[in-house]
Amino acid sequence: MLSHTTDLGHFLVGPIKQVVANRKTWIDSRPKGGGQVPPLPRQPVTNEDYVGGLVQFENDARGSFEACRIITGPQQELKFEVNGTSGSVVWDFERMNELQVYVNPGREPLRQGYTRLFSNPEYPFHGHFNPGQGTSLGYEDLKIIEASRFLKSILEGKQATPGVREAAAVAAVHTAVERSWESGQWQEVGRVESGE
Prior knowledge:
Distance between the termini: 29 Å
Oligomer: single chain
CATH class: Alpha Beta
Structural class: alpha+beta
Strand order of the largest sheet: 5-4-1-10
CATH architecture: 2-Layer Sandwich
Number of strands: 10
CATH topology: Dihydrodipicolinate Reductase, domain 2
Number of domains: 1
Low-confidence stretches: none
Shape: globular
């Protein structure tokens, strides 16, 4: 859990410097093969139901993360919220074609509420799928975009981003998260070399 969340944090805010995290497994066995119909034999669960923690980014920004696979309510709420002194942005995968933006330039008297932006043909890739305003992209469209970018990087002989380096950076954060589970303390994230 948390690979997409960590990757989003890196993309939006920058590299993560240190973490402190906790975990919990409430359901310690599940039916073998993931089936729902009894009487399937049960097997031990080998990963967490919940992970949460705090992060400090290299640019000194602070953040929190949380993931739970057994809660009810959200269906696929991969969500981020970035707050700063001049504005904020909020995005939720369940409403993936919408971005909420709050801008307060010069710290003017507070204006109430966010402005909601919709994905449309003005943004990269969107126009290849839907040329009209107000027509959303779907999950399948995102997979086609990913495959296209991957194939383009092969044809050009050039590593695209995100790539192996970004995946290694996510793995370095998760290694620090696991160390924090054991120690109960803040852990430094190992550096990932550029390889260039």
